[in-house]
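Section 3.1: Structural characterization of target chains.
Under the original work plan, the team committed to producing a structural model for every single-chain target entering the pipeline before any wet-lab resources were allocated. The record below documents one such target. The sequence was received from the expression subgroup and is listed exactly as submitted; it comprises 388 residues.
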Amino acid sequence: MSNKSRKILFCSHESILFGAPRSLLQIIDNFDQHFDVKVISYGDGPFVKVCRNKGIPVKVLFKRKFFKSNKVYGRLVNFIYNKIETLLNFLRFSLIAAKFQPDVVYINTVMRSMPVIVAKLLGIPTLVHVREGENFIKPVSRRSRRRMKLIASADKFICISKANQQIFLKYGKVDEGKTIVVHNGIDTEYYKKSLIRRKSFRELYAISPDDMLIGFIGNVSIRKGTDVFVEAVKQLLVKRKCYEKFRFLIVGGSWEQIRKFKIKFNAQLESKLILIPFIEDVRPVYDAMDIFCMTSRSEPFGRTNIEASSMEKVIVATKVDGCLEIFTNQVNALMIDPNSPEQLLEALEILLKDSVLRKKLSKSARENVINNFSEHQTIKKIMNILDV
């Protein structure tokens, strides 16, 4: 039911189009059909572009910049610049909120406390969507402790997993009654396998139709376990005699991250590893893959888990945090310990030998998402929390 008299001001902490902002965009897109929405984004980028293309009103705040300098005057310039930027953002956010007069301010992160402050000063209810893991939630400095204290003053909190909720309760020190768990959800018709996309992507990157493509999607980082994936790949290539039938794929990160990664690893993998920076539409990547590896050492939820599952990929995932709330070992994925290239290698070898198991896991993976992690379920739960 449309209720355009209800106003919601959404705040995105960054303007990339993966992870948290991608999930927020999905929520905004659904809410825009029923309510009067406006968006504020830190920085201009793909997220802002998509909002504007959809006709969703969006305003852009300054995103913090750092000038590279180890000298005293360089640090002083950074300090002054960031203080001015913070003040300007505060004033701009305040003016936008005061003029729009939303019924609720919806903040998509625990990393920005300023929207909470503004909303409190204007007497507007606040909802914070907690998407970060312990590495971001745990206060490690006076500044982060102050930020977390301000965030904790919000009215309601959505946590993307039970594991994520427990971490937030531990470090945020909020009343558990103010928090509720709502798993991420996706449009399972949008994330549906396509043989046409599979063929096109493989032709583009010279991947044979007979090659087994094993892939990873996510930031190239220690937390995401990219090193674990690469180590397992190296061991697999050593052990398998017919390794020419294997290709490996990493998608994610910036061009600079990919460049450094190529210098470090590509020679060792004898050009069997394809490296691609972040792309907005990852469906062709999933389509091209046969096995998707989630190797994170910590993972609040892992949107790629349910995207890959919906695309009927065979999943190998670590037994951490939100992954344990998505998968059941041997039912819709193979689960391994984090930080273990040996276990990842063992799981891959099991899957490579057993086509029946691969078919069973991939089919069950999509059924799991349709039944438990659909976009409709997620949006309905969020609307109930907002009482709209």
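The chain has two domains: 7-185+375-386, 195-372.
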